[in-house]
Amino acid sequence: MSTAITVSYSISAVGLLVGVGIVFALMRSDRVDAERGKFAWLFIIPGFAALSYILMAAEIGVITVNGNEVYLFRYIDWVVTTPLLVGYAGYVAGAPRKWVLGVAAADAMMIIIGLGATLSTGIATWVGFGVSAGVHLVLLAILYLVFPMFAREHRERYRLFKILQNHVGLLWIAYPVIWITSPAGLGYVSAVGTAMIIAYLDLVAKTPYVYFVWTERASFAVDPVDADDAGTEETIDADDVAAAAD
Amino acid sequence: MSNPIRRSYGIKLILGYAITGSAVTAVGIVTGDAAATIVMTWAGLLALGSVTGTNTIASIVELERRAKSIADGDLDTDLRSGRKDEFGRLYETIDVMRNSLSEQIESVEQARAEAQEEQERAEQARREAERAEQEATELAEAYRQTAQRYAQAMQQAADGDLSTRIDVDTEHDAMETIGREFNNTMDDLEEALSAVNAFAGDIQRDADELVRLTDEAESTVDQAVETTGDIAADSKEQRERLEAVAQDIDDMSAAAQQIAATTDDLSSTSDSATAASREARDAANEAIDEMEAIERETAEAVEQIESLTDSTEEITEIVEVINEIADQTNMLALNASIEAARAGGGGGSDAGDGFAVVADEVKSLAEETRERAEEISRMVAEVREETADAAESVRSTRTRVERGTDTVESALREIDAIADATEEIDEGIAEISGATADQADTVQTTAAAIDEVSEISREAEATAGTVADSIESQRDRFEAIASTLDEFERNAEDLVAELSRFRIENHGRTANSTALSDGGER
């Protein structure tokens, strides 16, 4: 494993820890209702990812399949955190519990199928990739067709939902493309390049996510009248996080 | 350093691009592979888009949605953003705009409500003004009707019907005061005129009585002395003067009618009532003065008549002396006849007879003297009786003059009251004052006439003196009336007593109302 990968994973781990700090600040703020915001779940997103990256930087859980090194914790991280990312967006939209759980389950299935495709060889790899991509499309459909119906009912959270929806929906398009160009797919991009790109994408997908919740925390204000005051609270800035991640 | 970054969207963008560029560069250098760099670049663009673009789109979409709801009139929508950069400020600005709009709409609605309220108030004021106008019109009509009614009554009064009274309008204070004061004025005027009437009638009757007494005295004195013919002539002149007095009083009546005529303009021209009533008061004061002058004159007349009585008392004393002389003469004649009888029996009967004849002659003369004196005494008694009657008449006149003065004084007080209460009818009172001045002149003329009466009384006194002189020349004849003079004196004292009692009764007596026109015709 190259030094570049280790450095990249370390930077991502640090950047994700900044995300943990943001969620911690959210939990500490007495201007917002932490229970209503379900911030405890947000902890897991940068927290579990940071833990995974630390483990990956330490080269723990690395297996070799078809001559390719596969970081298992990357997929474990994704199985845990990506359902939370899409499910929390559904929660913000005000979707019923079954939709939130359903979309999370679909996401987890997408990751697991993706992992299966990575671990498989030959045609099975592409079938798995196709199924996983199909589930991805289903996820996007729910995100853009189902959740907005509920989000319109919750005016105060609508903007946060739109941010999270676009953030997830847009950024995640990159992942299947990276997979195709990776050694597991067509092999256009080396393992080192793929690792650095994914480390960048994972950081950008998670720490800004919690930062957006922070900037829009007024959606979960204890008292809606004081919501403007909640926005003035000093906290860690996501751009600092991004700068640190570089 | 976080604040400047949070406050500027541009810095955020630059930072994002710098980080992404760094990542692309790192991948390119580490891998040395174009494909890896391209994929990284593509992924970086997606990441930038998802981090910055989606946020921007969300903010703009949200802004658009909120702006639309504001445009649709939902101004209660809260606008807030956790962002501190240009978007955050844009939110704040729009929120300020929303609040400003809300306030302006509120103020416009408030202004509209106030305008409506003002309009309602104006409408209310208009209705009140209309009602007030209607009330004023009704009030003016009521005043006009009352004034018309008053004017009719005043016209009747002006035409000479002094019994006319106004049916007082008690609904309006001013009209009630005018009506009541007019009625009071008419009451006073009527009372004053009837008192003057009664006074004139009394004077006339008294004058008649005086003329009658004078005539009787004249005829009596005619029988007694020749000089009483002057008394008759004077009495005639006195009667003529008294007729002139009656004529003057007639003029006074005409003046009073003129007063009544002037009340015609009382309703419309009443500006200087107070001044006029003051003039009226002055004129009435003059009348009172004149009446007091009359009173003084009549007092003088009484004194003169009383001095006449004193003169007759002197005559009575003289007649008494004559009587005594006749008695002594008689006694002397009796003694002479006794002496004559004694001389006739003792010596020369011729001388005794002749003495007796003289004594008889003297005795018969004394008898005749006593008879004449009794005759004079009877005549004097008659004269005293007539004089006492004249004195009584003059005293009665004086009493009535005093009552007339009281009446005029009472009228004066009423005029004062009118002056205080009705300044509005000043000018009418001014004309009344003018007429009252004429009346005063007439009273003055009356006073002058009565002066002449008193002069005539003085002449009568002088004539009585002449009578006394002629009677003195006949004192022999007065001897006969000496015995009756005592009784006459007692009768005179009784008469004085009777007169004093009569005066007290007189005060209680009410004046008889005699028509003024009757006095004028006589």
TrEMBL record, chain A:
Keyword Membrane belongs to the record: yes
KW Transmembrane helix (keyword) present: yes
A single GO BP: phototransduction
CDD domains reported for this sequence: 7tm_SRI_SRII
Matches recorded under Gene3D superfamilies: Rhodopsin 7-helix transmembrane proteins
GO MF assignments: monoatomic ion channel activity; photoreceptor activity
CC per GO annotation: membrane
Membrane-spanning ranges: 6-27, 39-63, 75-92, 99-117, 123-147, 159-180, 186-205
Sorted UniProt keywords: Chromophore, Membrane, Photoreceptor protein, Receptor, Retinal protein, Sensory transduction, Transmembrane, Transmembrane helix
Membrane topology reported for the UniProt record: Multi-pass membrane protein
Sequence similarity: Belongs to the archaeal/bacterial/fungal opsin family.
Protein name, UniProt field: Bacteriorhodopsin
The species this protein was found in: Halovenus carboxidivorans
